[in-house]
Amino acid sequence: xxxxxxxxxxxxxxxxxxxxxQGVDFQHIxxxxxxxxxxxxxxxxxxxxxxxWCGPCKYLVKHVFPVKEVGDFYNKKFVSLxxxxxxxxxxxAKQYEVYSYPTLLFLTPEGTVVYTETGGxxxxxxxxxxxxxxxxxxxxxxxxxxxxxxxxxxQDEDFLKIYFQKMIEYGEDPAESxxxxxxxxxxxxxxxAEMMEFILKYSRFLRVDGKSEAILNAxxxxxxxxxxxxxxxxxxxxxxxxxxxxREKAIDTKDPELMKAFLENWEELPEKRKRREDEIENKLxxxxxxxxxxxxxxxxxxxxxxxxxxxxxxxxxxxxQTKYERYKKSYDENPTETGAFMMPRYEIGVEAFDRIKTxxxxxxxxxxFAESKKDYKNLESWxxxxxxxxxxxxxxxxxxxxxxxxxxxxxxxIELKKSALEKWPKNKKRPTAEYELEQxxxxxx
Length: 445
Known about the structure:
Mean pLDDT: 89
Oligomer: single chain
Radius of gyration: 27 Å
Distance between the termini: 44 Å
Strand content: 5-15%
Low-confidence stretches: 1-21
CATH architecture of the domain at 20-138: 3-Layer(aba) Sandwich
Structural class: mainly alpha
Largest sheet: 4 strands, mixed
Order of helices and strands: HHEHHEHEEHHHHHHHHHHHHHHHHH
């Protein structure tokens, strides 16, 4: 009998090991340990930076990482690691400037980036990605080697051109190296057609307050004469593109100085191209990044108070009801997936929905700075107003739960968080709320 049990256990263990070996063998160790292991085994480190809410991340886990051919290649060539970029991998994600998910990062044992890619892909493409990383390491112009040379070669225009093009190829931000190349290059005239084409080609990377903007501002009249009708339209959008790039980078990197540069340039736009809502949102984002709680709360209080006073609740509800009835009639006559997706917003009320969204967004950051009874009272009044727009709204319940938890009222916070999750749709923010509830329950225990 014992012999049979032993044989069964052996078979089960063998079967489990065989299944595990089918795919990528992700190590349950720290990044530092992975780098040391890679050094000992003469391998590179592969890191999958993921989040619990990321759809493409889940696709890789289900359809790519378990594939035998993928495992055979990656287990031979890499020490593989999975890091949740919002939890245990947060510090490493910041170190390697990971802002989108999944980010697939290949490192030398010294921790230098060899290759980077983002997004989901098929198994064959994932194997090809690993081969590119290995080939890149051995290349004369590998990104890792170029990065080592960059500090000493910032006046070398030929080197800089290779460098920023390689960064683009690897999916890294080339903005700094493009600006440096523009500052030293002698290849093309700043007021000529080639420079105009260069700015148009790389506009998706350019930001304000740099050499590229200075060149554009100094030569826009000349470019307009040289450009075709289509290129003139593109030229007219370059400054806006630079502004968007600057804002996105400031938010991604949590850089208050970059956000300040964006804000100063944005305020110079013609009034007809600026909305008050955008102005408030941009200022609040700057105060958040600068950790200027006093300015944030003063601006938020003023804006939300003016928003609440701007229109009576009765008028909002009547207008929203009219819009809903019109939309429902149109949808019933011609049902579409897009129409079904938008229906919950119309059921709540278009303006009510937008106001609640504003209260939740501003209120969440407001809570980070809140300390006094007056601060909490202000936030409570916003939430109560939101409930009048949509009683029991799950986003507002979530915000209120966070406020109660911060104030030490854990039991009430848990009940409200549970209520919010019962209504919460399946979207990328739900796992975060579930994780927050787990932390609350652990504290209560």
